[in-house]
Each structure stands twice: as structure tokens, then as C-alpha cells.
Amino acid sequence: MAVGCVSEFIQLNLALMVKLIVSRHAEEVYMEQPSGFFAQGESCKLSEWLESKNQIEFLERDYATRIDLIAKIRGLTKAEAYLETIPESCSREIMYRTLLLNCVGQNSVKKAEEVFSKLKNLDLPVTVFACNQMLLLYKRNDLKKIADMLLLMETENIKPSSFTYSILIDTKGQSKDIDGMDLIVDKMKTDGIEPDIKTQAVLARHYISAGLQDKAEALLKEMEGENLKQDRWRCQILLPLYANLGKVDEVERIWKFCETNPRYDECLVAIEAWGKLNKVYEAENVFETMVKKWKLSSKNSSVLLKVYANHKMITKGKDLIRRMEDSGCRIGPLTWNAIVKLYVQVGEVEKADSVLRRAAQQSQMKPLFSTYLTILQQYAMRGDVHNSEKIFYRMKDYHSRALMYQVLLNAYIKAKAPAYGIRDRLRADNIKPNKTLANQLIQVDGFRKNPLSGLLD
Question: pTM value?
């Protein structure tokens, strides 16, 4: 092969690697796969190099990929700055849409609102995609703003999509408003949109949570369809739902469609389902089937580790961790999360903290937010302000700051200790207290006067 062809071949493959790492499955790929894969930070440098050499023609999707990568690695502000350098010939709507997606992914309400406003101010099309992203953000952070977004959609004649209705259904379900949830389904059907199986799964989950077993079972039968063997992809949606219902026979029946020639994702949900039903032996059997067909990996081991953690089976958990080490598994954030949960479930919070600290020091990979949060919640429940603050400090690079403060303040409340300067810290982090946080701030206010104190002066 000629030198020029070799160079072109290498550059093409490097470009493909960059795109792979920032794809929807990027986190899974880079976190716990063999070390031959690039980490996201290295990919960011790689994409800069490719662009600077001007030997690869960047298309719109390449620029959008680059924005996505910068937002994930260097932050939203840097991604927005890069966006301004992209040629005017590229669709600005696609670029801002990519940036908005990352704002929502990082739960940055302020930045998402700025980007959404910019879309409107620049007279770019405000699509149902952008509105759905804002609805998703408000569902997590500020339910009152959902009505404003729906009004805007109505004013701008933006028709709701299936995903719009799914967000609204989930919002009502989380608020325990089952009647309101059913009304949205009726409105959805009136608008000519039939709930797809993912939306039905959301409905079923909330019916189960509300104790409406008959309603949930009827919906699951509808979701299953008439020929499950032909529509086997439905199995991985049905297995966890039947497990949530406590239906051992139904989980067993569904699993039989998969058992003779199981698929990877079916095995993962089956392990979780058997675990929920307290059938640890069955979960282990599925795991061993996976190991024979594919191989032992961090991903499938982490699922079984969660089962052991939920059943406080510390010895089995430790044996599996040793087995992973002996097999040369690349242990990353998913596995750390499972190990931390394993120790927390048996009350060994300090051990969980120690494991996570060592993992973070020895690896360039970033632990999951939920892993730190698990430990922070445990220290807070004990009223251990000192260790809660230490974990909080280690979480400073994550974006769900309001939730972090809520958990931190629980430690002060439990310890009956004042949190001096906490309002200044919130202001510095640009966090506007919600109702829960505002109530907590009153309780930890060191200068609040007790109503009884005046009687004793």
C-alpha cells in the first residue's frame, strides 16, 4: 500500500474511533473495555489533531460530534465557544441541538435555558426535539415550568411526539397522579399516537408502584403481543416488569423463550429479574451461561454483584471480585459502583469509601455520580458531617449539585449542627434553592432564634 494510502487509512480509522467514543454507547465502551480503546480525553486531543491537519473534510455531523465531545470532556462553555468557530455553511440548528442535548445530559438548567433562548433569538427552528429536551430537564428540576413549555409548543404549533407524551406520563406517574397519567394517554390516542412499548413500560411501572396489579398485568399481556417467539425483542422489556410484579412463573415463562439461545442483553435483564425475585441461584445460572457463551466481563459481573449486594452476600461478592481479577477483567466505574453497594449493604461504609478512593486514585476513569451519592447518603444518615463534607468535596466536578446539597444538609440536620456559610456556597454554585432545600436551610441556620429562647433570657 502506498504511503499516502496508508496515511489516509490511518486517519479514516482515527476519525471512526473518535465517532465511536462519542456515540450513544461511548460511556460503556470507554469505561470498561480493553485498554486498546482510547479514553474520551485522548479522543478530544485526537479530534483536534485531525481537524488541525485539514486532511479530512469535516461534515456537519463531524462538527456536531466534536461539540458533543468537548461538552463531555471540557465543559459546556468550551463547547459553546467552539460552536461559534464552525463555518456558517453548517446548520446552526444541528449544532445548538447537540449543545442543548449535553446541557440536559449534564442537568444544567441555566445553560440549557440560555441555549434554548438562543435558538429562538437566532430565528432557528424550535423543534419538538428541543422542546422535549427542556421538558425532560424540567421533569427532573422544576415541574412548574413544564406548563410554560407546553404553552410555548401550543403557541408555536409544535405538535407533541410520542416521546413528549412519554415524558408527561412519567411526570404524572412520579407524582402518583395515576388518573392524570391515564388522561394523558387518552389525549395521546385522540391525537392519533398509539403508545409504543417503551411508553407502555413506563405506564406499567407506575401501575405497579401504585399497587394496581390487575391493571399492570393486563397492560403487560398487551405488550407481549400474540407471538412472543417472533417478537422476541419484547422479552428484555417484559422480564424486569414481571419481576417488579413478583411474578416468578411469568419470569420463568418469558425466560424460556430466550434460554436455549440467549442474547447478551436478555441475560443481563434476566439476572436482575431473578435477583429481584430473591432467586439468586437462578441469577447465577444465567450468569454462568453468559460466561460460557461470551466471557466473564466487568459488565456482566457488575450485574451479579448488585444481586449479591441486595442480598447482603458479601462472601459471594468478594469471590466474584477475585474471579474477575484472576480473569484479567478491566475494572471500571460500573464495577466500582457494584462493589461500593456491596459494602454499603452490609454496613461497611468506610470500606466502601476506601475502595472508591483507591479506585479514583489509580485510574483516569471517573466514578459514577451515583457511586459517590450512595456513600454520601450513608454518612448523612449517620449525621457524620466530617465525612459527608469530604465526599461532597470529591463530587465537586459533577453537575447534580442541588441534590448533593440536599443530601449534605441531611447530615447537618441529623447531627443537629448548624451549617455556617451554606447559603454563600449555594450562591457561589449558582443554585437557587427548591422547596426541599429551602426547608433544610431553615433547619441548619446557625443564627435562627429558637422561639423558646426568648422565654429563658
Answer: 0.74
- CA distance linking residue 273 with residue 371, whole number of Å: 22
R_g of the chain computed on alpha carbons: 25
Q: Is 86 helix (H, G, I), strand (E, B) or coil?
A: coil
Query: Could you tell me the three cell numbers for 342?
Result: 456491596
Q: What is the pLDDT of residues 239-275, one digit of tens each?
A: 999 999 999 999 999 999 888 889 999 999 999 999 9
Rounded to 5 degrees, φ, ψ at 149 are: -70, -40
Amino acid (one-letter) located at 434: N
Please state at what angle helix 162-174 crosses helix 144-155, rounded to 10 degrees.
160
**Are 162 and 195 a contacting pair, CB within 8 Å?**
yes
Closest Cα to residue 68, out of 110, 14, 106?
Answer: 106
Amino acid in the structure at residue 107: N
- Reported as half-sphere exposure (CB side, CA atoms, 13 A), residue 100 has a value of 26
Residue pair 67/92 in contact by the 8 Å Cβ criterion? no
CA atoms of 271 and 303, how far apart (whole Å): 7
**What is the spatial distance between Cα 67 and Cα 50, in angstroms, rounded to a whole number?**
14
Q: Which amino acid is at 58?
A: F
* Residues 437-454 pLDDT 10s: 888 888 888 666 555 444
